[in-house]
Design goal:
This is DUF7642 domain-containing protein. It holds the Pfam family DUF7642. Keywords: Membrane, Transmembrane, Transmembrane helix. It comes from Arachis hypogaea (Peanut). With about 170 residues, the protein is an alpha+beta fold. It has a domain of about 50 residues. The chain is about 60% helix and about 15% strand. Strands 1-2-3-4 form a four-stranded antiparallel β-sheet. A hairpin with a 7-residue loop joins strand 3 and strand 4. Helix 2 packs antiparallel against helix 3 and helix 4 runs antiparallel to helix 5. It is elongated.
Length: about 170
């Protein structure tokens, strides 16, 4: 387990490395949001909240307060999922979220997480340096480029998972 100083040092190194590699002026290769899964996310968390409140009603009676809080909880969940963004840049994967605190009148929490990917820049170079044969159609060229990008992203994801599991 890392100490706080090590974590701060790693975050500082990560920020400096991002600044050296282009920082905020990097081109975004791909941007994604989580709006499509909003309805399922809100339903799942609502059902979970109601079940917890029913359990607490049976145990101590506190669940009534939780049921009164349910509309606020649904609002917080909706704004949370709508604010999530994922960006793929040449040198990093950036996850940004601005979520309200449990009581929205107290403001919002802004979180930005960078995952530096050295292989990502190599992947971009590989993707554009591959020689496409003139017999392929343009649609096949774009599809193969997308497949190569997805394969490389999967490799990067697996390497990050193995890093965190050690």
């Amino acid at each position: 387990m890392r100490t706080i100083n090590e974590v701060i040092e790693v975050d500082g190194l990560e920020a400096r490395l991002l600044d050296l590699e282009g920082g905020e002026s990097e081109a975004v290769l791909y941007a994604a949001s989580f709006v499509e899964s909003e309805e399922r996310f809100v339903k799942y968390n609502t059902v979970q909240w109601v079940l917890y409140s029913l359990l607490l009603i049976l145990a101590w009676g506190i669940g009534f307060l939780m049921l009164l809080y349910l509309p606020v909880r649904r609002f917080v969940l909706r704004t949370d999922i709508r604010s999530r963004r994922l960006y793929l840049t040449p040198n990093s994967i950036v996850y940004k979220v601005t979520r309200p605190v449990p009581f929205p009148c107290f403001g919002v929490l802004q979180k930005e997480k960078h995952a530096i990917m050295m292989r990502l820049s190599n992947m971009r170079n590989e993707m554009f340096s591959t020689q496409m044969s003139p017999s392929k159609s343009l649609r096949q060229d774009s599809t193969s480029g997308e497949l190569l990008l997805l394969q490389k992203l999967e490799e990067v994801g697996n390497s990050v998972k193995s890093k965190w599991s050690n």
